[in-house]
Amino acid sequence: MSLHDTLQHIFLFDTLNDKDIQLVASFCSLRHLSKGEHIFHEGDTADAFFAVVSGKVKIYKLSPDGQEYILAIQGKGHLVAEAAIFDQETYPAYCQGLEDTTLVRIPKDDFIQLILKHADIALKILHAYSKRLRYFVMQVEELSLRDIKSRLAKYINENSMEYNGQTVCRLSISKKELAALLGTIPETLSRTLKYYKDENIIQEREQDILILNSTKLRAHL
Amino acid sequence: MSLHDTLQHIFLFDTLNDKDIQLVASFCSLRHLSKGEHIFHEGDTADAFFAVVSGKVKIYKLSPDGQEYILAIQGKGHLVAEAAIFDQETYPAYCQGLEDTTLVRIPKDDFIQLILKHADIALKILHAYSKRLRYFVMQVEELSLRDIKSRLAKYINENSMEYNGQTVCRLSISKKELAALLGTIPETLSRTLKYYKDENIIQEREQDILILNSTKLRAHL
DNA sequence: CGTTGCGTTGATCTCTATCAAAAAAGGTGG
DNA sequence: CCACCTTTTTTGATAGAGATCAACGCAACG
What we know:
Two copies of one chain form a homodimer. With about 220 residues, chain A is α+β, with helices and mostly antiparallel strands. Chain A has helices at about 5-10, 20-25, 110-115, 120-145, 150-160, 175-180, 185-200, 215-220, and strands at about 30-35, 40, 50-55, 55-60, 70-75, 80, 95, 100-105, 160-165, 165-170, 200-205, 210. In chain A, the strands form three sheets. Chain A has a four-stranded antiparallel sheet with strand order 1-8-3-6. A four-stranded antiparallel sheet of chain A has the order 2-7-4-5. In chain A, strands 9-10-12-11 form a four-stranded antiparallel sheet. In chain A, α3 packs across α4 and α6 (about 175-180) packs across α7 (about 185-200). The first copy, chain A, is elongated and about 60 Å long. The interface between A and B is large, with 42 and 41 residues. The first copy, chain A, binds a DNA duplex (30 and 30 nucleotides) through α7.
């Protein structure tokens, strides 16, 4: 797929006419990321943000003693680092590919010029910001008011899908990473999963978590 | 001070000419809030956001069992609920006056129209969003990787000022509220303050915390 | 095969919430 | 200004959640 076609499918730009897409294409570029590769590190100069075309990246921070905390995992259609663009000069976290990933790189300065001409794009990115902000408010709330049982239950609940009669949550990330995403450590995650398994609320099968009793699971939310 | 003059001093509008300020004044209004009074509750329809003119408000959430968590305390010059405007329909938290407070109420729909005409205002609010987002990212990081000693040290450090030779942190909120802001309870805050006092790192005097040993304090960050 | 990293399990320890109660601080009405 | 009541703050004792440390099974991989 060409850059032009790719851009048309990014929600930020999907109202633009052909001529304007052409303009956007003139300053955007595709960036491929192998598994484990970084697009940026915390503290790097933030001169661009990204839209995920395919694959998945994790945004994470490191504590002074090296512990990792995952702020978000962004897949197809998500924006990455859009928050760093209108404020400071540097990225506030690390961004690394969880698998082979393709992104569109959107340079800061050109995008600002675009907004000044197309105010409706400003509204769209404001909308994206609002969603992101709401997500973080939720995170803060969770971390300060909920325990790990509850956070895990929420994760499973929100990431499960109906799959020929079964409600399944596919773990597309490692348990180590899930732990970091839930704000805990692998040992505790393992024990919490065991708790739910012992209570016959869930069951593990390869990459999947089968939900046996969604009522009981929701009771932990 | 008239609404017109007040608006001119809000950073969102400080580049507008007199005629446009007139326009903004036509849809904005002043709102006075007594101590303890709410502007909005979680779940209320979000049809406006606010700018604090004087006083102070707290934005907080309640857990199912009634525990309060303060997301932010906003004083003069800050925007309130700007995040709720471009996304969903409802406020995600409560907002209550900590003291007698005056705010400008900015209705959502009119503001969106304004942005479409003045794209530079879009940039300003995007800037405000970025700052807010960065703040929450920091909060999430703190809550998941730092203990309470560290969070308190950070608070004292960031809210202290030089005051004739002394480094002082004025507590403009109650300790109960400070506890809720740090994501803990008053008992634990009290004990943590005691720890720092016993270590001769700080000293309390009326509304103030005197920093006796900022090196040791920073060592806890 | 040895090595390396992930996941699980067990024992222990630390931090923080909870419960209880006293002390201190603030109002309020007389 | 004082007695009274309410709320905040502090202190103590206890319990529980989750981190840490250590060890082991297991799969992937050179």
